[in-house]
Amino acid sequence: MTPSEYKEFKRLKRENLRDHMTDLELIFSMLGEAATTEIAREKDAQGFDENKDAAQRGGKIAGDAKTKLEIESGKKVSTQGNYLTEPQNKKLLDTDESD
With contact defined as beta carbons under 8 Å apart, do 29 and 98 qualify? Predict the structure, then answer.
């Protein structure tokens, strides 16, 4: 999903998307960003088209990893829940269940 699509998926208006992500959602976002940066540096990407290609490849790496985790765990990583608005005890239960 694009950031705009993800904000719509989480039903956010003007809030910061990252503030409403779970730990796993943040980890996979960071993986995509780090992979994109590494690919762009290694390929010495110059200009929009080369950087767009690096971003698509980095996003695919994170997307593939996310899909593999979802298959293994049987749970979706991306949730429509808004992390900041969930009660703290619900967040703790979600974390405990994943152990």
Answer: no
Three-state secondary structure of the chain:
CCHHHHHHHCCCCCCCHHHHCCHHHHHHHHHHHHHHHHHHHHCCCCHHHHHHHHHHHHHHHHHHHHHHHHHHHCCCCCCCCCHHHCCHHHHHHHHHHCC
Q: Which two tokens stand for residue 39?
A: 């690919």
Residue 95 has pLDDT above 70, yes or no: no
Question: Does residue 1 belong to any structural domain of this protein?
Answer: no
Domain count of the chain?
A: 1
The whole domain housing 35 covers 15-97
Assess if residue 34 is contained within a domain: yes
- Regarding pTM above 0.85, the answer is no
Assigned domain for 5 exists: no
**Does residue 6 sit within a domain?**
no
